[in-house]
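Researcher: Here's the sequence for the chain we discussed earlier.
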Amino acid sequence: MGTERAYAKLTLSLRVLGVRADGYHLIDAEMVSIDLADELEFSDGDAFAVEGLAVPGGGDNLVLRALRAVGRTASVRLHKRIPAGAGLGGGSADAAAVLRWAGRGDDVALAATLGADVPFCLRGGRARVAGIGELITPLPCRAGSAYTLLTPPLHVSTAAVYRAWDELGGPTGEANDLEPAALAVVPALARSRDALGEATGEAPRLAGSGSTWFVPGAFPAVAGATVVRTVCPGQAASPTSMTG
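Model: Thanks. This is the structure I predict for it:
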């Protein structure tokens, strides 16, 4: 029945502008797709299997929720390469892949019901993301720009980070307003930040709510790091921009 690639997203900047009456946070962010990707294989049947990295959530993970949302059944084999709880939108990318497979690749409203990052992952490329994640404004996509990621073995709960942001009174970060809150929730994140900064001479930024830290450029010698490049799935790319 086909395969779909689910590209991770990297949040280059993130401002939290406030909180709606229903408790959802309003953001203004810039996101790009990167070539770290899961792959989903669809076939006849009704089963779900995972190869590679573990997927949290048991029977209520985003792949199965997306299938229910489109009213479809299928046997899905998920080749998992995007780590969970890393701020890279792995579950959201998988849900978006299900929507594309089901012919709902333009249904941003449906995507938003599955999670704040799903609308961007559905569109991909490079975009300004606003509202609670459902307002997507495409930006010129520069394929091939390099970033070095360092993801510690720490799972960071997005919900816990937003709660901490509220409790701390809405702190701001240099490029990511969630960074102070994430460090308050998981102080051990600072060790990976400092290691990446010392190894590269760059100021690391936190990806979304964490736990991944990143710097621009390719630094393949950094222990435990992954070098990724931007991709433009479904979006016209400007001339390749290679960094590092």
